[in-house]
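Problem 3 from the worked examples.
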Amino acid sequence: MKASLPFKYITAVKRGKHYVIFDYRDDEGNRKRKWVGTGLPEKCKKKDLTAKIDELVSEFYKEYMENNIERAEAYTKAKEAESARAAETAKDGYTFLGFFQMWLEAIKPTVAENTYEGYIHTSHRIITYFDKVYPGIKLTDLTALELQHFYNDMYSSGLSANTIKHYHANIHKALKYAVKMNLISVNESEKTERPKMEKYEAMFYNEQELGMLFNAFRGDRMEIVVLIAAYYGLRRSEIIGLRWDAIDFEKGTITIREKAYVVREDDGSRVTKFHNQLKTRASHRTLPLIPFIGELLKDKKAQDEYLAKLLKHDYCHDYDDYICTDHFGKLITPVYVTDHFANMIRKHRLKKIRFHDLRHSCASLLLANGVPMKEIQEWLGHSTFQVTADFYSHLEYNSKVNSANAIANALGTGSVSNKAKADTSPGQTDSKK
């Protein structure tokens, strides 16, 4: 049936002939049906049938409109009014939180699972705040003032400007969707002011501090995780995603091609999943297998096989393909890596850094030992050279020595000692790179 006309119609076959059946209402609103024959047999050319149906529909439409012009106009106006009322009802019916949660469901099929988990994590505080401070506020009543209060209150509570930026991004996207759906006419979040962003000062370890860290983790279930992070500067997700088939002992290579990520199930539990889509295309890389790490991996593989035979049914085989498992074959999860690393730092009274800062430590040591920035970009898997330069150029001490020697020689005051040590104070880098 065609719903765009003031009547409906279908086609049917009766006694070997094609008919068009019109469904309409008369002047008194009573439902009527009219059968009109096409004159064509059941077995006819589709092209001929389509042309005849169009002809009959056109004739019926002309007749219907001539006899029912006033009612047709009333019908059109009634439909427009009904649509307008429905739109207004939808606008008035949504609370801000109700719409925000609907938006979260709407975007779920459009983003990666781990990306959606990030949306949910960031949105939790937004939902909690508005449910407490502005309960029941309508989507159409929400203004920049309420949003500004939210940002200011979050900043006053001690949250960083970077965290508030993520809250704003979610709210802005949700309201942008509301504008697209004609539920509101203006995105109020665009009128707000956010706290000034401060560049993150990443901490990192020098050679001596890394040595102390390695001693603290010797024999720990996470020893191999910490060593790979320090030697290769891999992201946490890349380390946990390493499979045994990523290690080629004969060729002496290690290939980073999979990542682990955590999602929260409906019951609130956290589940670790894997995906072969890394952060950037450059993140998929093959690196030389450092002999020391290679020997550790061979020992780990032999130990896993021994423990599997020893423990028998008590040994978990679900993660046999993965490198980062404990003595019972269970996966070392990303959440455990972060939490256990922080606990070990406190326990051994080491300088406080995050697990991700081992990536920065790796980069700083490479720079301090004269490795060109381009090679560091490839080692870390940054998307572009500029990304690496922006984050680590302040640590490139060798180039500063060259500059110091150039000006000293030009003024005749002698060269700078090449034994001078680079400033090991925290550098300004992005915590996620």
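Problem 4, a separate protein:
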Amino acid sequence: MSHHSPEDKKNIGWADHPAFVRGFLWFLYLSCAAALVAGFFWQKEHPHFAVETVPVFFAGFGFVMFSLIVLVGQHLRKLVGRPENYYQERE
């Protein structure tokens, strides 16, 4: 349990308000649902590849690729990241 002073509530950013976070998550959920529904009704008339005719292919492909980018980025940071005090060592 955290103890916040009244002064902490004054310094909270607009994106940290619980109402904004809830609203943003609902918007995100509805957008994802709309993309899934649209994937069943709107198909490319002349697909380049056969897999493009699968319903919701683009929504699923986008989700999988974004997830892979995030997961690979976590490991890439370990490989190319600098220590926290990297710039202070030179001074």
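Solution to problem 4. Residues 17 and 42 are 37 Å apart (CA to CA). The two ends are 40 Å apart (CA to CA).
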